[in-house]
Amino acid sequence: MSDLFKEKASDWDANQMRTQLSSAIGASILAHVPLDGNMAVMDFGAGTGLLTSHVAPRVKSIDAVDTSTAMLEKLVAKPEFQGKVIAVCQDIIELPLVSRYDLIISAMTMHHVEDTDKLFATFAKHLRPGGTIAIADLDKEDGTFHEAGTEGIYHHGFAREELKNTIANNSFVDIHFHNAHSIERNGKSYPVFLVTATNANV
Ligand SMILES: C[S@@+](CC[C@H](N)C(=O)[O-])C[C@H]1O[C@@H](n2cnc3c(N)ncnc32)[C@H](O)[C@@H]1O
C-alpha cells in the first residue's frame, strides 16, 4: 500500500488549522466522554498524534493506529508519548487487532475509509462490552475542502442522519452528535462534528 501521507508528515504539525482543529476535537472529547486513568484507548488514524496528545494524559494507554509509516514515525519521536502511546501500523479493517479497548477516538480519518459500514463494524469488534466511540470528521461539504485530485478521499463529509443509521446498524446506542469546530477557509465554513456512541454488545 502506498503511503499517501509520506510527503505531508514532515510539516504536519506546523499547520495551525490542524493544531486548532485537534485542540477543539480534544476539548469536545473531554467535555462529552468521561475519561479515567484505567482506560485503554485506540486513536484510529492517529497520524502524528495531534489528537492523541490531548487524551493521553488522562488515560492509561493509547494504541495509535495508522496505515502511514511516515506519520507514525513523527508520533513515536515525541518524548511525551514514551511509556503511554504505542504505534500500530496496520490496516485494522482488513487485519483486526486482538486488543480490545474502552474507548476509540478518531479525528479526520473516517473520510479516508471507503466502506463506512465496515469501519463501524471494525470499531464494534475492537471495543470491550459497553465501550465508547468518539469520532470526529467533516459535516457534509461541497467537495471543496480538499484540493481537487487529492488521493484517498472517499467522502466529502458526512450527513449526520445517514451516519447515525450506519452507527446504529453496528450495535451502537446513545448516539449523539456534538458541534466540535468550524474550519474557516477561503470564505467558506466547514463544520466538524464529534459523534459519541456506546457499544451495546455485552
Ligand atoms: C487527515 S489525517 C488525520 C491525522 C490525525 N488524526 C490528525 O488529526 O492530525 C488522516 C490519517 O488517517 C490515516 N489513515 C487513512 N486511512 C487509514 C486506515 N484505513 N487505517 C488507519 N489509518 C488510516 C492516514 O495515514 C492519516 O495519518
CATH superfamily: Vaccinia Virus protein VP39
- Ligand names: S-adenosylmethionine
Q: Low-confidence parts lasting 5 or more residues at pLDDT below 50?
A: none
Q: Given the helix and strand composition, which structural class is it?
A: alpha/beta
**Apparent shape:** globular
N-to-C SSE series? HEHEHEEHEHEE
In CATH, the architecture is: 3-Layer(aba) Sandwich
Query: Roughly how much helix do the residues carry, as a percent range?
Result: 10-25%
Assess the beta-strand content as a share of residues. 25-35%
Please give the count of helices: 5
CATH fold-type name: Rossmann fold
Taken together, the total number of domains comes to: 1
First-to-last CA distance: 35 Å
The main pleated sheet reads as: 7 strands, mixed
What's the number of extended β-strand segments?
A: 7
Task: State Rg.
Answer: 16 Å
Q: What is the residue-averaged pLDDT?
A: 96
Strand order of the largest sheet: 3-2-1-4-5-7-6
